[in-house]
Amino acid sequence: MKTAFGLIAILASSTAFAAEPGAPAVESQATSSPATVNALPAMSFYASIASGELFDLVKLSAQFARVDKEIYGSPIFLRVTHSLQPTSGGKAAGLLSGIFAGSTLGLIPAVSNNNLVVTYEVRVHGREYVTYSYQRAFTRAVNIWAKDETHGLGKDGLEWLKSTVGEFTTAAASDPKLAALSQEYTRYFGAL
Q: How far apart are alpha carbons 97 and 107 in whole angstroms?
């Protein structure tokens, strides 16, 4: 049976049995309360946009409470990536408004219309394990001289990005693959 942790987990479990010849089955040792069954093991975190905001929100979830930005070499990884894809009408409007903004030295704002796609991936040993994507179209007017504290998304875009964390953690809480990952980790490496 192929598992998420592969050969390392098999070796770890076989050495645990060798050390304790009369030990009961691992499943009975890994029994825990329902609240901790859904908790995932410690994992590394990376976000390509709004890293601090997303990290703080993800960490509020009981399932992802052990996520950390500085766990280097962790076999489990939560990666949040984004992409901006211009809509068909947004390409022409963006080009035209960019020309106007540049020719007026920024007196006229540049307008963009993009689809923002945010993807949450849980990866184990570098391989994709679970993926959730969220998408929304945004039109935004940008003053090229203003300081932007919204990571280029605008106020509405940043609020929507933050709202995807709740959608992701809710979906992940009922994901059978993530529940299996937590149980497998507990089986091979002990309680979280």
A: 11
Q: What are the average pLDDT values for consecutive 10-residue runs of the chain, which has 192 residues? A: 47 36 36 52 94 95 93 91 75 53 56 83 94 88 68 83 95 94 88 70
Residue 6: which region, alpha, beta or left (left: phi > 0; alpha: psi -120 to 50)?
left
Inter-residue contact 75 to 124 (CB < 8 Å): yes
Domain extents in the chain:
39-178
- Give the pLDDT confidence score for residue 149 in this predicted structure: 74
- Cβ contact 67:55 at 8 Å: yes
> What's the pLDDT at 73?
84
Query: Which of 88, 67, 63, 91 has the alpha carbon at shortest distance from 79?
Result: 67
3-state secondary structure 88-137: HHHHHHHHHHHHHHHHCCCCCCEEEEEEEEEEEEEEECCEEEEEEEEEEE
Tokens of 120: 């949450």
d(CA 49, CA 153): 10
Q: Which CATH class is domain 39-178?
A: alpha beta
Look up the pTM and report it.
Answer: 0.70
